[in-house]
Amino acid sequence: MPNPLLEFTEKGIYCSAAKVYLDPWKPVDNAIISHGHADHSRYGHKQYITHHNNVPIISHRLGNINVSGKKWGETFKINNVKFSLHPAGHIIGSSQIRVEHKGEVWVFSGDYKVENDGISTPYEPIKCHTFITECTFGLPAFKWIPQKEVFENINLWWKENKEEQKTSILFGYSLGKAQRLLKYLDTDIGKIYTHGAIENMTNVLRPIINFPETTLITKETNKKDLVGNIVLAPPSAHGSSWIRKMVPFVTGSASGWMTFRGARRRRAVDKGFVLSDHCDWQGLLKSIKETEAEKIICTHGYSEIFSRYLREQGYDARTEETQYEGELAELNTSSKEDVET
User: Which stretches are transmembrane (predicted)?
Assistant: First the structure.
């Protein structure tokens, strides 16, 4: 029996016909990378291929690597296997990876969301025979409200904190979430200060997106200057000596996990805003339907529950183990930048 077009191996998702891996978690010779988050783009591969908007991101994060960039929909062949990258809508430069060989088409979604956030290239459904989907929020309890409403709430929270002469500290991943927050913060309320990890990544992306002005927090920053303004920081800064210098402050976190009150308590934040760069339950179902795929492979997240539901709906669905972490990835990973500045 011939090998499937894509196999799940100890190193990652492997296309044996092309001898290339998709988002491998162990060092390999040839890797096609869906996006820049740490669980999908790892150090140690000999050759990286990704969307051209992701090239500066992974180069910044991984250092001196051998990487080439592709355009949306650009077909490139490796050992007669056709590959192309298509918008995933997850973060800037995030891709779905389409693989075609001998009339068979697979799509690896990576991480994706269907809501247009205004900074990432919007998600594009791709028809295929087999669709590999994340399930980060694959439960009916997850149902996002439009981001416009979320940002209205965030800016109102900031304004109220300013009236009480407190500094607002808003936590979001240094890549993706932080830039999404930054884009829609109301600078009429006050100034936006940033942690070094967010400032550095945002500067990498400024040639691509027009972001509001930010001020990097340094050792010379006077905490009195922060009062009434807002600070964007990665989750890793929570509870650090860096943040304790900003008293009095109020903390907020933007994440899909804020759907559950318990998550806010566990993370010891004052305010939770439900804002995710992944699909909610309906977004996952809608996306899968639009692919017209016959087979669905469910990976990271609520994969067992979600795949069982898909089978009940008549899909040929199963699960596969990966080392992807979805929205937990950057909570569990600290970079060299996540230090006091």
Answer: none
